[in-house]
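Worked example

This section walks through a single chain of length 433. The input is the sequence exactly as stored; nothing has been trimmed or padded.
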Amino acid sequence: MRNLANFILVLFSITLSCSAYAILSMELTRGVSGAIPIAIAPFAAQGEEMQDVSGIVSNDLQHSGRFKVYSRNELSVSPSDASQVSSEYFHRLGTDNVVVGKVDALGGGRYAVRFQLLDLLNGTGTASVVLSKQYTVGGLELRAVAHHISDLIYQHITGVRGIFSTRIAYVVVQRSPGQPTRYILEVSDQDGYNPRPLLSSFEPIMSPAWSPNGKQIAYVSFEKKHARIFVEEVATGARRQLSAYPGINGAPSWSPDGRKIALVLSKSGSPNVYVMDVASGSLKQITHDFYINTEPSWSPDGRSLIFTSDRGGGPQIYQANLGSGSVSRVTFDGDFNARASYTHDGSHITMIHRVSGLYKIAILDLDSGAIRVLTSAPNDTASPSIAPNGSMVLYDTYLGGRNVLGMVSSDGRVQLTLPARNGEAQDPAWSPF
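Given that input, the structure is written out below as tokens.
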């Protein structure tokens, strides 16, 4: 295994001693059978050249796997207002959901963006406007407002909050013959656009973790040849060292209130789970044994942690109650389960699950104990990170001879890949809303 999964295997075998602007290219590899048809008419645009807002909305909805999108290339009409929509035309096309809009240049780099979502299945023969919004934004905000429009449409039709305005963090690895490997911690929109490097190093960077408010990222850096945990402000790049104890400093995980970080330290010997107060730096040890305990992740209510441990003879998921201190085993199916995290409602956990010698992304129903394997490709996967609405899991995998990012829906029916155009991508983390 690679990346953090490789780190897990190392931990379980030995005790450790003491152009960066890559764009991820999203490719839908499997969508939902019977996806919801929707037409996105090209937005009328007046003024100077600008972002293709309707094109971004089309790509967002298409890549969600939940929609069959009719966009610019499939349409022979281009209405920009509900009054111009022919219900008969779109019925023949096969959809009752239509999006129209307009982008006007206001001067001074400002734009007015208007859109309408129409429902044609209302029995009147005319288009019914079910959602209508207008925004005034700067040129650099056009892509952001397009993602926001996608979120609104997705939520109105599916009933689930959209994730198109969220961001992802990941590590880009650049290898060149005769040159040292470069590692770049990068943040981008969830579709891979607007990438921005936070840290570049010739030493490994791993385990990025978003704060609950999305303003900070904690990560492990091996600069100066020693693992240390830093917290960095995403907007400014200001950072501070959080942990640099002898031995392992790894796997940071923010508490739901953002006041604490769970982490793994080996300063007393074996790797154990601790909780650190972010403001004061004070530590509380959670596990107290000579097993290997790693990869803590908080429950949504902040009352417990799940973590990976070999105390049962192999990597499995355990839960530590922070009030009582009791530890209980969570996973029993399979001989390898690791890197677990809760879904947003606390009813399931996502994790790495070994199947026939290969590492897959799986989801465990905590009520029934049933495990559902989500990924089907004949290769290893690692580093699962679940979207804030619980609909998708981001992970890294090996494809076409290099490491890439992938996404899979929590029901396993939708899969995408996001290969980096400048290097390899690994160890992703999905931001909160």
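What to look for: Residues 25 and 307 are 32 Å apart (CA to CA).
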